[in-house]
Amino acid sequence: MKYLLLISLLMTCQFNYSQKITNDFFVFESALSNDSEYNSFEKKAKLIKESGFNGIEISELDHFNEKFKAIANLGFKPSSLYTKLNLDEPELDPRLIEAIKMLKGSGTIICPYIIKKNGISPHSRDKGIDKIAIQLLRKLADLANESGLQVAIYPHLNFYVERVDHAAWIAKKANKNNLGLTFNLCHWLATTNLEERATLNKQIETLAPYLKMISINGANNIISSKSNIWGDYILPLGEGSFDVKGLVKYVAVDLGLNIPIGIQCYNLKGNKQLVDRISAQVINMKSF
Q1: Could you tell me whether strands 109-115 and 78-86 are parallel, antiparallel, or unpaired per DSSP bridges?
Q2: Domains contained in the chain, number
């Protein structure tokens, strides 16, 4: 009997261990964007670190040096760099080249959103433009590889690459080991219908070889009729009808992808209470 109890206990411990999520969770820079107290990047980063997160996003290249220095002084991690890749420009932004050199060995994921303003209509794709994107992304991937960094294409509504399937196709064609994509929940919701959403797990499984990170937030699983759709697709983590915890479990536990998970906070009213609520939700997500 004691032997059976011991076996049962060991099996329970093994099960509990296997269900524990160890992925890094980080917060997008847009957190606390309207807060008068946490009104500098350094103050935001300090609060986010003290709240138990693994890192913070750096958004865009403006003031990059100051943000990078602030994070370094805190002993914190720049989890991702969200930056523009403009297909109307023939070369990479020199500031991005320098930023990647500074980020060497940091583990930061470079997240380019891809735009093309000239010669293309909204929500359309073009083989010639795809070829330009692939060429620039190969250059970016090679540069990032020299610094030991990964690149994750960031699909974004109303930009040239706005759907995850387009981003995955480009990443596959570019054929660089350190190049993949981000699955952004809010932009996926904004670019899919209900029928497509019903096959989410199958889509994630297909994307898995190319997934470098995901971003999550609270959201309503509806086709938004609001003039500002982000009122349905970007809510504080823990709110809305979409099963965010189920998504995280499928990625981190069922597929075993130990990739960073970012918390989207765009347009949310920022204050310490919001960060505290997000932190509590993340703690809840880490165990199943």
Answers
A1: parallel
A2: 1
Q: What is residue 24's three-state secondary structure? A: coil
Tell me, yes or no, whether 151 lies in a domain.
yes
User: Under DSSP, is residue 56 helix (H, G, I), strand (E, B) or coil?
Assistant: strand
Residue 4 vs residues 1, 7, 14, 206: alpha-carbon distances, Å: 5, 5, 15, 41
Q: What is the pLDDT of residues 43-74, one digit of tens each?
A: 999 999 999 999 999 999 999 999 999 999 99
Query: Is 9 contained in some domain?
Result: no
The answer to pTM > 0.70 is: yes
For residue 272, give Cα distances in angstroms to 43, 203, 275: 11, 35, 5
Range of the domain at 39: 23-285
Q: Quote the DSSP letter at residue 218.
A: B
| Residue 99 neighbours by CB under 8 Å, 6+ apart | 61, 64, 68, 81, 83
- Compute the distance between CA of residue 134 and CA of residue 153 in angstroms, rounded to an integer: 11
User: Per the domain annotation, does 13 fall within a domain?
Assistant: no
